[in-house]
Design brief:
Residues 242-628 form the Schlafen group 3-like DNA/RNA helicase domain. Pfam families: SLFN-g3_helicase. This is Schlafen group 3-like DNA/RNA helicase domain-containing protein. InterPro entries: SLFN_3-like_DNA/RNA_helicase. The structure is a single chain. By secondary structure, this protein is an alpha/beta fold. It is built from 22 helices and 24 strands. The strands form four sheets. Strands 8, 9, 10, 11, 12, 13, 14 and 15 form an eight-stranded parallel β-sheet that branches. Strands 1, 2, 3, 4, 5, 6 and 7 form a seven-stranded mixed β-sheet that branches. It has a six-stranded parallel β-sheet with strand order 18-17-19-23-16-24, sandwiched between helices.
Length: 673
């Protein structure tokens, strides 16, 4: 990764601008980007304006300038980066533009925020994004408070005022406590952690997981696991045998990334793969995101959609198609099953299919193994296992796969020791299976939460009811959770945090039926592909699209959000999981008719806890939990019951939002660290 042209400002001023323009055009051609006359003229205007501006600045000794600095996670390049010892200036030029449009503002801020989050050289000094619409009228704007580090709001500037603006900012950022070395900035590590949608786009376009890094050096097993899967597949293909690989891990550790790599990472016909998921939301969102990208590059939408239908498939439709056609063999030799622990057990499969045109006679794992066994020679199944995330009645867990494999000895089994137990249980394989144990198939480092790696441990402690352990974890971590009792405060805080680029949204349990009384009755229809794609991919800012997640109008349940994530999450906690008894413990409830009913089944109670485990681990940056205050006149919203939930969360180390808001206001003064 590197700029197309970079060097000291003094070198830039002493270099013929035509030579720099030729270099930019050469780099564009080498990367197969367009360098049409319009782009060449824009570069020429930009270079002339910067030469005039920087010549007039007296304090640029030692500064660096970089042109076309790539931001791979966002699929773009920053027009110009100026590095002083005291600040980073992100300059985005719109040559000939007469206004500052919302898309350009979001693009400029997005680049700056990406540097703050993932570029090691940009974390300790101000990052100042500036949008230059060369022909626009100069707007009045408030100067940012330049203290500490972080990203300021986007400043707007026209060509005539660029010199004055940069001169003022350079003067005001002088004399930082620990000045940067501008010539080292470009070589600083850039380690982006993409969302699932961003990762799918990147892997699909590059056929590689190598470009997906983590901001934490200890998360190396994401690459190790992916490489080991490739090795196991190649060995099985060479030996013409059937193999099944279980990839397990803690929540947020990147199991889906490994699966996407296996699905998209090869173009060889003999290694063709399909990514199956019983989560319709994931199917809809990934298909639509990749389709939008391809259409934007000029491909025909109908052809792209057809290709996506074979690469990312609904497990249910795939299963029914081949169960109903016993003589037909899938064209794909590799099947990747997302959240494989959620496959139906035999009773559920028979019951659910009794009134369908295709009737199931055994468990989903058994049917899927038999379908792939139709291949002569090599075939493989990769099961992505989210331990502790079974969230629905009839989900068979690892035990269901173990039962199916016990009767199919032709399958070679590879799994981490973490999913094998001497005690029979829903979440593990039985010890009697001939499993080749592979420690590299278990992912142990969370990569979703960008601000702290302690989130899964804290969530486990909370759901186990261990307040002292949760509080201890919180004391030694920068816990990305806040608590509020006010829905307006929740919405206000999410809007403040999401800015122009980050995504936010409201989520809740599917059993949170009494949130309707609080004004949250609109639930995202997770089976509606258009609604789902719009919620995850469309934007409230700048488009004012009320269907988008960050419009904060529609609530997604665990069925819609599992396997995906948002930057900032508003978790709405209802009376379906409460604290009760002495000593207090978690109690699951279901709303029936006009009252809450206690869930007595231990298995269903576990599904309830797993629902909240999913909901508590959906944020890349921060989760704000809202527990309603209740209504003493409504027994279904008892204030004492809801207070006990909030009190327990506070005892587990969550800070109230009112304190966090005070801190946040201060942080905004320090440029939104």
């Amino acid at each position: 990764m590197g700029a197309w042209w970079s060097g000291p400002v003094a070198t830039f001023l002493n270099t013929d601008p035509n030579r720099i323009g030729e270099r930019l055009a050469h780099e564009a051609g080498r990367r197969r980007f367009s360098s049409e006359p319009q782009q060449l003229r824009a570069w020429a205007t930009q270079l002339d304006l910067l030469r005039t501006t920087l010549t007039a600045l007296p304090q640029t000794a030692g500064w660096q300038i970089l042109f076309e600095f790539p931001i791979p996670r966002l699929g773009g390049r920053i027009d110009t980066v100026l590095i002083s010892p005291d600040a980073t200036f992100v300059l985005e030029f719109k040559v000939g533009a007469s206004q500052f449009d919302a898309a350009a503002l979001a693009q400029t801020e997005g680049y700056a925020l990406d540097l703050q989050d993932f570029h090691a050289g940009s974390r300790h000094h101000p990052i100042i994004p500036i949008l230059i619409a060369t022909e626009a009228a100069q707007p009045a704007q408030t100067s940012p408070l330049l203290l500490g580090s972080g990203v300021t709001s986007v400043l707007k500037c026209n060509a005539a005022n660029l010199t004055a603006l940069l001169a003022d900012l350079a003067r005001r950022t002088l004399h930082s406590v620990a000045p940067m070395q501008p010539d080292n900035w470009e070589q600083a590590p850039y380690n982006p952690v993409p969302s699932i949608v961003e990762a799918a786009r990147l892997i699909y376009s590059t056929h590689s997981v190598a470009d997906i890094h983590t901001a934490r050096a200890d998360a190396t097993n994401l690459t190790l696991t992916s490489d080991r899967i490739t090795e196991l597949l190649e060995t099985a293909r060479r030996q013409h045998r059937k193999t099944i690989i279980f990839v397990s891990g803690i929540p947020d550790a990147g199991k889906t990334l490994c699966g996407l790599k296996a699905a998209f990472g090869t173009t060889e016909p003999d290694n063709s793969a399909t990514f199956l998921t019983g989560n319709p939301t994931l199917v809809h969102v990934l298909r639509e995101a990749l389709t939008r990208d391809a259409v934007a590059q000029g491909q025909k939408r109908a052809a792209v959609e057809q290709r996506m239908e074979s690469t990312i498939q609904s497990l249910t439709k795939f299963r029914d198609y081949y169960v109903g056609r016993t003589a037909e063999c899938p064209p794909e030799r590799i099947m990747i099953i997302d959240e494989a622990q959620r496959s139906w057990n035999a009773d559920q499969a028979v019951r659910k299919s009794a009134q369908r045109s295709v009737r199931l006679t055994q468990s989903e794992p058994a049917h899927l193994l038999d379908i792939m066994h139709r291949h002569d020679g090599f075939a493989a199944i990769i099961c992505l296992i989210g331990q502790g995330q079974e969230i629905h009645d009839g989900e068979g867990g690892m035990a269901c796969w173990g039962d199916a494999l016990a009767n199919r000895p032709e399958w070679h089994i590879h799994a981490s020791p973490d999913v094998i137990s001497s005690i029979p249980g829903l979440t593990t394989l039985p010890p009697s299976l001939p499993v080749q144990k592979e420690t590299s198939l278990h992912l142990t480092v969370p990569v979703r939460s960008l601000r702290d790696t302690a989130t899964p441990k804290w969530v486990n402690a909370v759901l186990e009811g261990n307040a002292s352990l949760a509080r201890s974890i919180a004391k030694n971590a920068s816990l990305p959770f806040r608590l509020t009792r006010s829905l307006p405060a929740l919405r206000k805080a999410l809007r403040e945090r999401s800015r122009l680029t980050y995504r936010c949204g409201l989520i809740a349990s599917s059993q949170a039926k009494r949130l309707r009384a609080e004004g949250l009755g609109a639930e995202l229809a997770h089976m509606d592909s258009n609604a789902v794609a719009q919620w995850f991919l469309n934007r409230w800012i700048p488009d004012k699209d009320v269907r988008a997640s960050d419009a904060l109008e529609t609530v997604a349940t665990q069925f819609a959000i599992q396997g995906l994530e948002l930057d900032f999450v508003g978790l709405c906690w209802d009376g379906d999981l409460i604290r009760t008894g002495y000593p207090q413990r978690w109690q699951s409830r279901r709303f029936s008719g006009t009252t809450w009913q206690t869930v007595k089944s231990a298995e269903k109670a576990l599904w309830s806890l797993n629902t909240y485990r999913v909901l508590l681990t959906r944020a890349r940056y921060e989760t704000i939990i809202w527990v309603p205050e209740g209504n003493p006149d409504d027994p279904t919203r008892c204030p004492d019951t809801l207070n006990s939930i909030a009190d327990f969360l506070l005892a587990c180390g969550i800070e109230p939002l009112k304190h966090a808001e005070t801190l946040r206001t201060l942080e905004n003064c320090f440029l939104d660290v």
